[in-house]
Automatic annotation (TrEMBL):
UniProt-recorded name of the protein: 3-methyl-2-oxobutanoate hydroxymethyltransferase
First-tier enzyme category under EC: transferase
Known role: Catalyzes the reversible reaction in which hydroxymethyl group from 5,10-methylenetetrahydrofolate is transferred onto alpha-ketoisovalerate to form ketopantoate.
Annotated organism of origin: Candidatus Campylobacter infans
Gene that specifies this protein: panB
Pathway: Cofactor biosynthesis; (R)-pantothenate biosynthesis; (R)-pantoate from 3-methyl-2-oxobutanoate: step 1/2
Keyword set includes Manganese: no
Length: 264
């Protein structure tokens, strides 16, 4: 299969939906790579993988570690890596950290949460040859400031439309719109020349992304309204582990077929 590039994604905007999924390790990235168009090493790993209740405490080093693992398995999909909280608060810091991520992980693009206020940073990164996916709408890295995970577009629709236009003009290559009223996300998509990926933002964006552990039913702490579970993963794992434990305790496993023996 040919490698997905930014040109592929722009072509898909006009013709077919773009499929994106998160991954945090080589094992799952390898399973997803031939099926999806884009893989996101998201800071959501701090919650679903790390057991925390927010993304804010995740370090740049942790993101790089997971992104390097994912990259080893990705041959087809377009690879995007989240820039964690605090890593892009100024142009100089963003350049330093994004260059480090770009060099060490081999990713195709980075993702930055933030609106129009990040335009100078997007421009600087674009000029440095680093592709950026801008993330607007519900921004998990701002959850403390916002008092939780709040749906966007109810009282700030025009601000979101302005953010999208300003970030596109600044040089962003893609937009991710999260947790936004569907009609507003539709308008953003229609007004943008960029591929627009939605999560919890309705069906009319150019593509969709979900956290893999949500989509496969492994994450049980809570289930957002926008998540559809395509597998009861947690139940299936429990059943398998219970069966393993039962067979070990009964002596059924390992059987002779699982033993190494002298030949002859």
């Amino acid at each position: 299969m040919d490698k997905i590039t930014i040109n592929t994604l722009f072509a898909k905007k006009a013709n077919e939906k773009i499929v994106m999924l998160t991954a945090y390790d080589a094992l799952f990235a390898r399973l997803f790579d031939d099926i999806v168009d884009m893989i996101l090493v998201g800071d959501s790993l701090n919650m679903s993988f790390g057991g925390n209740d927010e993304t804010i405490s995740l370090s740049l080093e942790a993101m790089i570690y997971h992104a390097c693992a994912v990259k080893k398995a990705v041959k087809h999909a377009y690879l995007v890596v989240d820039m964690p909280f605090g890593s892009c608060v100024s142009v100089d810091l963003a350049l330093k950290n994004a260059i480090k991520v770009y060099q060490k992980t081999g990713c195709d693009a980075i993702k930055i949460e933030g609106g129009a206020e990040f335009a100078p940073i997007i421009t600087a990164l674009n000029n440095a040859g680093i592709s950026v996916m801008s993330h607007i709408g519900l921004k998990p890295q701002y959850s403390r400031q916002m008092g939780g995970f709040k749906v966007q577009g109810i009282n700030n629709a025009q601000a979101l439309l302005d953010d999208a236009k300003i970030l596109e003009d600044a040089g962003a290559k893609m937009l991710l719109v999260e947790g936004t009223i569907a009609q507003v996300a539709t308008q953003i998509t229609q007004n943008s020349n960029l591929p627009v990926i939605g999560i919890g933002s309705g069906a009319n964006t150019d593509g969709q992304v979900l956290v893999w552990s949500d989509m496969l039913g492994f994450f049980e702490n809570f289930k957002p309204k926008f998540v559809k579970q395509f597998l009861n993963g947690a139940d299936l794992v429990r059943q398998s582990v219970n069966e393993y434990a039962k067979q070990v305790r009964s002596g059924e496993f390992p059987s002779s077929q699982h033993e190494y023996k002298f030949q002859g």
